[in-house]
Amino acid sequence: MARRPLAALIAALACAGGDAGASTAPPASAWARANSDLAPDPAVRFGTLANGMRYAVMRNATPAGQVSLRLRIGAGSLEESDAQQGLAHLLEHMSFKGSTHVPAGEMVRILQRDGLAFGPDTNASTDWTQTVYMLDLPKADADTLATALMLMRETAGELTLDGAALDTERGVVLSEERLRDTPRYRAEKAQLDLLAHGQRVTRRFPIGQVAVIEHAPASLLRDFYRANYRPDRATLIAVGDFDPEAMEARIKARFSDWAPAGPPTAPPNLGEVEPRGLTVKVVKAPGGSTQSLIAWAKPYDASPDTKVRRRRELVEGLTLAVLNRRLDTLARGERPPFLEAGAAIQNLLRSAKVSIVQAESAPGAWRGALGAVETEVRRLVAHGVRPDELDREITQARAAMRNAAAGAATRPTPELASNLVEALDQDAVFTSPGQDLALFEEDVKGLTVADADAAARAVFTGAGPLVELATPDPVEGGEATLLAEYAKTHARAAPGTPAQAAGSWPYARFGPPGDVARHGEIGDLGAWTVRFANGVGLTVKPTAFRKDQVLVAVDVGAGRLDLPRDRPDAAWAAPAVVGGGFGAISLEDSQRILSGRIYDADFAIGDQAFEFRGATRPQDLATQLQVLTAYVADPGFRPEAFERIRAAYLTGLAQLEATPDGVLTRDLAGLLHAGDPRWAFPAARDLEAAKPGDLKALLSGPLSTGPIDVTVVGDVDLQAAIDAVAATFGALPP
Asked: Is the pTM of this model over 0.85?
């Protein structure tokens, strides 16, 4: 799957854990449904207290007896003044440092007494538009709920923000700032500056300014707290195994007395998208990757979340899915012009609506990468999509949405709580998977290639094209060279639509189904074991945790213990097993032929087994097992997949060397195993000397002769699992 460049950019830049223009932030206390023709998920109880605080309550029993709480404050770094840059994030850190009714240090101890661990169950995050506090409670009893709501209320309006505690926390945040300041982070900051040049968002990174973090007085932090932590900017989300009416009453009792402590921060002026034509930018990124980007920026889309808007965004998404599929095919082909590439369109931090296509390439190969993505965009705009391409993306989307709807009743509670936060941040109506599926079917009915072609033409318009090259190596001639290269590729005629390929799935049968030699039950685990006549083992564990989800694990041989210990090998190229497809068909062709079926395939070399993994639904279990069996019995080992992984490793070596985390990632496994080459990270000389045939030579023996154990867990019928494995792994030669 092609990555999502914009989503990756925003996630990388945000903190984990007097301009021209008008603000486009939504009204703080208005639910999105007030301006929409979409009905919200009926399973959620939405409400607003008299003081303006909103709440959303939803009963969910996956897992049973647990609760997730989220307190969202609709203020982030965009609300900071020049003198406050970084205080939204610093304030988030101070939420655990004492309040009116909870002394400093006591909050963490209270949470630990209730079974919560700081980090996994208790956390917070700050970005440009919001600050979110998270509690995942292991119990739903009255005392735990009362304690959790009390702590959320303390955070909301009772923090003391003591000066001494603030001085202690400054060092923690400054350490985070130093760790974050990597070559990749600096390159992505430059990218955001290109996309939203001159706008406030480029001057309000959530980590803030070092000088402000070091010297801002506690009084300035209190000013930000009083102006932004207000009931009319807050929403409490409660999802879990409780009575919704009782939870609603608890929220009202705990938060109704909360009153604003002062006037609010005025809505920030976010600036306007600059009217620009072709603009080029070269960013020197020592230790970073080589990234070529082309983007177009339009004004932020602040229109309500309605049926019309969702249909428009669906057509845009399907059209870009066609483009991403084409880019992925190029990346997997012979002599690929880039390592990976992707396209996306997104409303960017209430500042702009941005369309972007981006490619990562090997050092010095940026010309080919830039030319390839530019050509593919023009091909799409000039010639549109084929009917079969659009049908494939509709089929794939439909299958995913049907799967989501079927499993809606067993969605994990923390995931639901976070999804409600995301809907709030996007000013979107929170709808159920069933509603989404029904709307999808309504929208694709009568959808034509002409609709997709019109969407393609609309997506790639706006200020721009904005062209950026981020590279660790100097570019002779700088931006003049980049401009000339773009002009050269743009002057070429756009090629026609790629031809449709034919084919069928050649792995529907592996021979007569295998006979069951032994069958047993592990009573205390609710699991069954089977041994087929050819020696393949099977363990089946039916569960009800996630409806319509089945997980499959296949372990072959002894993993790294099967590898030579006296020399470096090609184990680092393990991802090329899946990327290399099958002996009789390529990965791309298999994905096209099996479109509409839900399955997955992953491969890794574990310490004690060669590990194939998949995730599917009950009706596609046979396909899932066919795919994994084909990878074991007839892997393609295509050279282009090997070369793609090798190029990624060679490109990544300098990036790993550029940060302490990178060096640790590179060296830790080897250090823990006393330099054993089976766990060591490959050196550049070994990568350069490796040949595509090395991976096949390394794995063919263990995969063809090693013992095979299959595990099937999830929403599965025991006999159906036995039959599906009998027809695949059980049918292989002994």
From this structure: yes
